[in-house]
Amino acid sequence: MNALSSEASKPAPSTSVAGSRLAALNAWVAEVAGLTTPAAVHWCDGSDEENAALVAQMQADGTLLPLNPATHPGSWLHRSDPDDVARVEHLTFVCTSREEDAGPNNHWLAPAEAHARMDALFKGCMTGRTMYVIPYCMGPIDSPLSRCGVEITDSPYVVANMRLMTRMGAPALARIEREGVERADAFVKGLHSIGELDPARRFIMHFPEELAIKSYGSGYGGNALLGKKCHALRIASYQARHEGWLAEHMLIVGIENPSGETHYVAAAFPSACGKTNLAMLIPPEGYQREGWKVWTVGDDICWMRPGADGRLYAINPEAGYFGVAPGTSAKSNPNALATINANAIFTNVGLTADNQPWWEGLDNGERPATDWRGNPYDPDKGPAAHPNARFTVSAKQCPSWSPMAEDPQGVPISAIVFGGRRASLVPLVFEARDWTHGVLVGAAMGSETTAAATGAVGVMRRDPMAMKPFCGYNFADYFSHWLSFDGAGAALPKVFHVNWFRKGDDGRFLWPGFGDNLRVLEWMIGRVKGDAGAVETPIGHLPTPADLNLDGVALTDEARGKLFGFERSGWQAEFASIGEYLDGYGPRMPQALKDEQSRIAALLAD
Ligand code: SAT
Ligand code: MN
Predict the structure, then answer these.
(1) What pLDDT does residue 6 have?
(2) φ, ψ dihedrals at 224, nearest 5°
(3) What is the Cα gyration radius of the chain?
(4) Which of the ligands is closest to the CA of residue 218?
């Protein structure tokens, strides 16, 4: 048994505690313990007993508050520090030896300086606390596409979340020990401390060349659950480039048609733009009657690599969902609601008088009594739930969970979808004419910002492939990497762009969204199979309203015009701005992408 746990009350173990058969891992854990001087070291085995003990401890110290056991059995509320509620992009760094390798898309520090800065923060920071060593596997435990990591943290809340979000504990440690004998890159080293939760002493640093992460001063989400954005996107994207695969900010959903054929779609949207909703979509009634089904493989991250047949095969590296609570309702996402009615951790939601979790948009007839800070709810003082309030829950609890999420080979991807929040110009859907055009569509993606990161909300920014906060290297090199997949023998997915967020002149959304998005996915699959119509325009292939099944959807003339229309003068301006954006990356930007931008700009000028 590798779980060598010592209780928090026991005296500090010596820093030479051997918790693993892998010397390199023991040496690193000892080095970290020497720096952070914890009172105890606990190697997490991921067992139910371990979780129960941790939860009891967190209940005792107020880190977790029990929710109503009748309505939400096994579920907890956590209130974060009010200054620690979202990812902090301005404090997130990619520390490559050469600044240009991190690119203009990242904040950069020289590795030596970054280590020095972080180690000064970590020095002695766990004094009196327990240090948890969390071995985890991103992806099915026996998949060749999976990668492992070890997170060291002083936060039991992080341990409990990592247990839901990753394959954590003894099986992961066994894989690390097995692979670690042969290779130096068997695990990513993630070091985390909540520190003082002081925004002035908070940094999230990545060292892609060393496969290492150091995160200090935040206990929230992507800042602290290091398997997620830090490992599975920033570090993994860097690794993927060198190893010939892709680590993407994408959901993975399977669409089964009435003849029982399933097509898998991977879709990139920025944080808080509805990835979880699309991944768990419930078909409109007519589709249900015909026998359409939707299968959830993943809601946030997708690792893809070419298979022997040239197609891209994808796994979801995660084992759980860290989803946005506000807006989740029986209308927007009934599957998510069913997923989170037991064994879930809620962070920064409000509470009803009888201790049920509550958030804006829940629409279940309940009323909030307490807000996310624990104060009596007062609508004049803001929402009951923080806009970036989250639930953490095991993926397997989702009614639409796909057993293919455990397939070590992954699922073949038929279509890649890019999208963002665009109130104007961008139609409901269009198809890229080929891979190079598809890469440009992804590179040019724009979206209005959301509450998932600190900063202004609703400002349009370019967010290529929804990876702006997550790409662990220079975007110019990233686009080159994407382009490189179009080689001999490749059987690549078709690429599409969608916009569920187009607004009318009155400021209201023109497309109903949610379950009705299946109509758009059906058209895409029709295009993949060659039996759905479209018209060619300079920006790609657009459906006419007649090419989509719109039975039961009432659209005004304005909606039809804007959702299915192509506005030449607006696109001319958009392409000029895309050209400037690409030029901002200088000579590293691949010529093929610039040529593609010029090709379309010329068509638009005609
Ligand atoms: O906090 S997270 O980065 O995990 C959530 C998100 O931004 O998607
Ligand atoms: Mn995300």
Answers:
(1) 41
(2) -125, -35
(3) 24
(4) 1
pLDDT recorded at residue 18 = 52
Which atom of ligand 1 lies closest to the CA of 272? 8
Nearest CA to ligand 1 atom 6: 271
Residue 10, pLDDT score: 41
* 413-427 per-residue burial string, b: 16 or more CB within 10 A, e: under 16: bbbbbbbbbbbebbb
Residues 227 and 203 sit within 8 Å (Cβ to Cβ): no
First vs last Cα of the chain: how many Å apart?
71
Nearest CA to ligand 1 atom 5: 222
Give the per-residue pLDDT at 456.
86
Q: What is the 3-state secondary structure (H, E, C) of 555-584?
A: CCHHHHHHHCCCCHHHHHHHHHHHHHHHHC
> Ligand 1 centroid vs 468 CA: distance in angstroms?
13
Cβ burial 463-495 (10 Å sphere, 16+ → b, else e): bbbbbbbbbbbbbbbbbbbbbebeeeeeebbbb
Would you give the distance in Å from CA 106 to the centre of its chain?
18
Q: Provide the β-strand partners of residue 293.
A: 256
Number of Cβ within 10 Å of residue 198's Cβ equals: 13
Smallest-distance ligand from the CA of 87: 1
Cα 323 to ligand 2 centre (Å): 9
Cβ of 228 closer than 6 Å to ligand 1, yes or no, is yes
- Ligand 1 atom with the shortest distance to the CA of 223: 1
Concerning whether 398 is annotated as a catalytic residue, the answer is no
Overall residue count recorded for the chain in this entry:
606
pLDDT along the chain (606 residues), means of 10: 39 52 96 98 97 98 98 98 96 98 98 98 98 98 98 98 98 98 96 98 98 98 97 98 98 98 97 93 97 98 98 98 96 96 98 98 97 98 97 98 98 97 96 98 93 86 96 98 97 98 95 97 98 98 98 97 97 97 97 98 95
Structure token digits, residue 175: 């894989």
Ligand 1 atom with the shortest distance to the CA of 225: 4
Q: Please give the distance, rounded to the nearest whole angstrom, from the Cα atom of residue 298 to the centre of ligand 2.
A: 11
Question: In whole angstroms, what is the distance from residue 13 CA to residue 201 CA?
Answer: 28
pLDDT at position 450 is 86
Which ligand gives the minimal distance to the CA of 301? 2
Q: What pLDDT score does 271 carry? A: 87
Q: Which of 539, 498, 535, 533 is nearest to 518 (CA)?
A: 498
For 336, other C-beta atoms within 10 Å of its C-beta total: 26
Residue pair 206/172 in contact (Cβ under 8 Å)? The answer is no
Phi, then psi, of 151 in degrees rounded to 5: -105, 130
Question: pLDDT value at position 457?
Answer: 86
Residue 110's pLDDT is what?
98
Q: Which atom of ligand 1 is nearest to the CA of 220?
A: 1
Provide CB contacts within 8 A for 20, sequence distance 6+: 2, 26, 29, 43, 135, 173, 176, 177
Decide: 452 in ligand 1 pocket, CB within 6 A: yes
Q: Tell me the H-state helices in 10-167.
A: 23-36, 48-61, 99-102, 111-122, 156-165
Q: Is the CB of 204 under 6 A from ligand 1?
A: no
125, 230, 273, 398: the active-site residue: 273
